[in-house]
Amino acid sequence: MHWDDEKLMLRALEIARSGMLSGKGGPFGAVVAKAGEIVGEGCNEVTSTNDPTAHAEIVAIRNACTAIGAFQLEGCRIYTTCEPCPMCLGAIYWARPEKFFFAGTREDAAAAGFDDEMIYEEIALSVGERRLPSENILRDSSKELFQAWVDLPDKITY
Amino acid sequence: MHWDDEKLMLRALEIARSGMLSGKGGPFGAVVAKAGEIVGEGCNEVTSTNDPTAHAEIVAIRNACTAIGAFQLEGCRIYTTCEPCPMCLGAIYWARPEKFFFAGTREDAAAAGFDDEMIYEEIALSVGERRLPSENILRDSSKELFQAWVDLPDKITY
What we know:
2 copies of one chain form a homodimer.
Chain A: H1 5-21, E1 29-34, E2 37-43, H2 46-49, H3 56-68, E3 76-82, H4 86-95, E4 99-104, H5 106-111, H6 116-124, E5 134-136, H7 139-151
Parallel strand pairs in A: 3-4
Antiparallel strand pairs in A: 1-2, 1-3
């Protein structure tokens, strides 16, 4: 199995540039490959699809999972043109690839006007310290729900 | 404007339970409301749609943004049956609601077998310390791309 990591990243950069120039969204692209071959691609589509979750990595992961018919990217590598924001890094953990590559860093993204660094700082804070208010209510009802899940037979875990 | 936060959370809990029982995915639900009225709902659909990003909050945010025709949830509140994982918390920051409510905590989720807590720990580590390998390549090419974005006229920022 041959992985040409630079070639795959160059493809992600190409997708990022064409997506940006055609007005799909921000300057970000991503590629998912399995056994060295591309199985999913995506560029940022936030502003053109009214979807704040349509970052390149999320789009590419969704496309790759659809293509391979699985909710896990086993044995895959992800190539993203910028260090993933916390949303996308979380998505990468849930997708469970073997490795990911990034070109720009979160500092590069911040310098270009993106909030990634701020979100990293916020996520590390405890609930009460964040600038975005949140509140815990009806916890007992949630516990009943989790217990129903634990007791559920024949469930598919992930 | 009246917000019945408990009623909206109870709706999220109902969606979570019916999604779980109908085999859509894990025991999670979310509701997005604007001016007290529901504008988007979602349950976890990871295993039924082969989409590791289809957590309840992501699904609800996407549905709400489609419904209101915007990529920002200005003046909205999000009700999620469990403290958001880093992916979903990141998505909430990008969607920019005014506040969010959660029922279960990340500890409750971990006790029911979900990886949220592990991902929170991983995200806080530096790139080289994480269990998931990653590598920075072609950073200079990314810098050119970001500069092209900065120089782009008439772009929609987010």
